[in-house]
Amino acid sequence: MLERQERSDVLPSSALRTNLTPVLARVLAFLDTSRNLDFMHEADVAPWMKRLWLGLLNNTKICQDQCKRIITRGNQTQQSEVVPHHFGVSKLVFTVQTPFFWLLFEDVKIAIGQSEDIGKSFDQDSPETMSYVENIISKTLYGEVLMSVVKKEEKNGVIKAYLKDFVHTEYPGKTDESEILCHALESAARQRGRDLDCLGMIRAVVYIHVIHSAAKERLQVFLEVIQIWPEVVMAVTELKERVGGNPLLTDDEMTLDVLSLTLLMEQLEPSKDELNTDKGRSDWMGRVKMYLPVIGRILSTTDTDLAHGNVCLRYMDHARCSWMRVMTMKLFLESFTGNKKVQLDMRCMPLWKMLDDQTDLTKLKSP
User: Fold this and answer.
1) What is the pLDDT of residues 142-194, one digit of tens each?
2) What is the DSSP-derived secondary structure letter of residue 322?
3) CB of 87 within 8 A of CB of 30?
4) Which of 72, 179, 283, 298 is deepest in the core (most CB within 10 A)?
5) DSSP summary character for residue 153
6) What is the C-alpha separation between 322 and 216, in angstroms, rounded?
7) Which residues contact 285 (CB under 8 A, 6 or more apart)?
């Protein structure tokens, strides 16, 4: 009788598969967040990535506790299909460079939030705040594993991998855009006197969040320019590849917003005879009207958390003069287009050349 009862408590293999399959699917979906399982079979990953991936996977309090929460009855839901979660902005797919990146990302966000709760005067960029947050992260399970498996000479590889993942988490875009944004954040950190490569590993990871908070308003300018002129990404990339330096390509100051503004302004330089025909003038006015809201907003934005450096300020002054030149020509065309007494074909290009790119109507004296 006892034997029969024991046998009746044993689930048939079909029922076992029915119950286990969705649970295993959810566990695998968690482990493969943002293609995290690729570390398992990729042959060319850095040694520190393999060690960190295995160290986190084998840690009983990190992954195993996460998986336990997934398989508890209260968290089980009926799903026809289980899809791995993607941590990219708007759920866009990208492959993490840092094993289990999202766990460290959330730890840092929580720690920074705790630092903000200390007091309104608590400055994120202060040494005290950085030490406070760094200490919290160092004592997290992820932080302990990270520091135990990464060698000193591998530190910069970890920082660059985390920065790439961070940018993918905050911004959509292809590889070229992401690389440009990564470089901009590295330059922003140097502008604040904190080279990421010279900071400790945990402190650098924390500072990526801090410097992004300060620079994001100016980074948004670059994204706005992309919306109206997508070719700006290629223009920036090609400029960086040229031999010979443009002052805006400095590594010691974040200049991406002003660089994109300068490149956009170049698109408003009319070709030799463009303003001599009705179609040419119409095309030029179309570009001006499309770019006007973005350029106007960029030139009026001066009070930002990450202040413009000396190089940016110099080029901003030049951009304002160029913009006055454009606005003067725009007003001229709006005033006289359709006026048969004014021969626009003969007047526009001479006026453009007369104004030149140093035009500053605010300094003109009245007769």
Assistant:
1) 999 999 999 999 999 999 999 999 999 999 878 899 999 999 999 999 999 99
2) H
3) no
4) 298
5) G
6) 26
7) 330, 333
Closest CA to 271 of 260, 259, 262, 283: 283
- Tracing tokens 């956009």 back to the chain, one arrives at 264
Alpha-carbon span 89 to 96, nearest angstrom: 13
Tell me which residue of 213, 10, 60 sits closest to 124, measured CA to CA: 213
**Secondary structure (DSSP) of 179-224:** HHHHHHHHHHHHHTT--GGGS-HHHHHHHHHHHHHHHHHHHHHHHH
Tokens of 18: 């029915």
Give the chain's end-to-end CA distance (angstroms, integer): 116
d(CA 203, CA 126): 12
Q: What are phi and psi of 237, to 5 degrees?
A: -60, -45
pLDDT at 84 over 70: no
Residue type, 62: I
Q: Cβ–Cβ contacts within 10 Å for residue 126, how many?
A: 13
| pTM higher than 0.70 | yes
Q: Rounded distance, CA 266 to CA 298, Å?
A: 15
Q: Where are the domains of the chain?
A: 21-76+85-241, 268-363
Greatest pairwise CA separation for the chain in angstroms = 116
